[in-house]
Structure formats: C-alpha cells, structure tokens
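FAQ: What does the model actually see?

It sees only this:
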Amino acid sequence: MRAANPTRAALGAALLGAVVLLAGCAPTGDEATTEVEGVVVSSNPNLATDPEIPTTVDIEYGAVDGQPLLLDACSPLDFDALTDPARAAIVVVHGGSWARGSKNDIAWRAVCQWLARSGYPTFAVNYRLAPANPYPAAIDDVSAAVEWLREPEQVARFGIDPDRIGAFGGSAGANLVSLLGTRGTGALDEGARVAAVVELSGPIDLTGVAVTDDFVPVQLAYLGCVTADDCPAASAASADTWVDETDPPFFVAHSTDEMIPLEQARIFVRALRDAGVDTTFVTVEGRLHSIAMIDDGLKQRILDFYARTLAPTELPVAPATDEPPADAAP
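And it is asked to produce this:
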C-alpha cells in the first residue's frame, strides 16, 4: 500500500476554503427529447448516433452566476425507471483541451447512446470552459453533476442506483473524470465520488512533466497561469496528486504515439497500482487520440470493465409467492 501523500494532504487543506455540432437536434423549451433522422456517423466510423436511444437534452443540473449547467440523459431501451430494478449510471465528460467541445458533438452523443444501449443510464455533461473559467471550474461542475444525480429526485426519475455511478472521459474529459476518481477519499457512494473510471488519453499530470511544447500553453490557459514555474494550480489539477488506496477501479487507455505522451498514462498507472488501486492499462498502437481510439475491441473491453466494477453487490431477490415451484411434489 502506498504511503500517505503529503502533497495531497497539503492541497486538501488549501482547497477547502468529432468536433462537429449535431445539426437538426436543437431542444425546444427547457428540456426536449432528441429525435435523429437516421444514423449520423462521426469522424470515427465506430461511433455513430443511435436514433433508437431515447435522449433527453439540455437538462439543467445546476447554475453558476446565472449560467445554467446542462447535461443530456441517454436512456436504455425498454427501461422503465419506475418499475425496473435500479441500474448503474455512467457520467460522460467530453474533451476539447478544457476550452471547447460539447456534449452535443456527434462522437460524444454517440458515446452516450452506445453506453445507454449497453444498459446504463448515461449522462453527458457540459461544463464551464477555459480560459474564461479556469481550474477548478470544470471539475467543480462535473462534481456537481454527480452530486445532482445522487439526489433522491433524480434517482427516482432516472431509475439509477446512487451507489453505482461510473465515469467516462477522453482527453481533457479524461483529466476531469480521473480527478473525480482520485480527488475525494473514502466511500465511493457519497458526494461526488464515483465507483469506476474509464479514461482515454488523459493529460493527467499538469506540473510540466511529460508534456509537449505545443500543449504547454493549453495547460497554462486552463490553469489560469502565465508560466509553469509559478502555477500552484498545476498540482491540484493533476489526478496523480490525489491518488490513495480508497480510489475506484480505473481503466486507462492511451495510444503509443499520440499528442498526449504515453508517459502521462504510465505515470498515472504507476501511482494507482502503487496505492493498490484496481487498474486496467491498455495501450493502442498508433497516433489516435481519445475516443478516436475506440473500435469494437476497445468497446468490449470497456463494457467488460464496467460489468465487473459496477455490478450490484447484492443480486435482486425474486418477490415472495405462495405458489409452489413448478417441479414441487403435489
């Protein structure tokens, strides 16, 4: 087991105080169910929208300074939230260098609907973007979305099990879901804690290690810093800073020669495994970044991971009946 992290303790005390927009699917009013004519394929042919999946868009999960925070809900087919057993939920967080991107992007809509078709009520989250809203705005928003899902009203509305909320993110979204998984401590069924994390191509350590020259200004803009030498937010925004033995299982996937150096994933996996955290590490040959990596094989590995880590701790019990079993003796 990893020794206590002094940086984490110090920061904890300090902190207390596809890029194409989906066309033709604008919501009406505060909330509307999307209907897509046919299938819309993203730049990754393995990610396409699924018109059969009920998708309710632009649900307000909070507000900051009068600005609404919105998410989309993708529902499994033939799922009745009022009568079916509660299901594990997944929160999806889009990428875009913390400065652009949206839950509405075709590929991210496709991810939401793919996970819903696989049986998980799935929620694609928008968050405030940098540089207008530097760290910690984005992680505060994503955390607020998880807390909102745990409210009794949302649990009943969507038929989810608040003890089994997973997270999925790519690129900047991978950084954010990794923070979701590591920034808290203790039980995984409270507050903004999540029970399982899938992160693809995440920039995990923002302190200046394993970073390309062209990505340095992207990190600094997100962190609200001018130089890397004077950037106290860098450590706080790095998921490996917070790792401890209570963190949830992680699935880490990274390409071998992509824009975020593979060493970022290796640093994170080492920290997780040193702390005794259940960690699956997948490397993909080539340059594909984030959800561009997804193919049928990676999809199945991700679903296998969620099936194992988000499984109910207790199996449903059949309702009692006075009728004898069919093979009982008369």
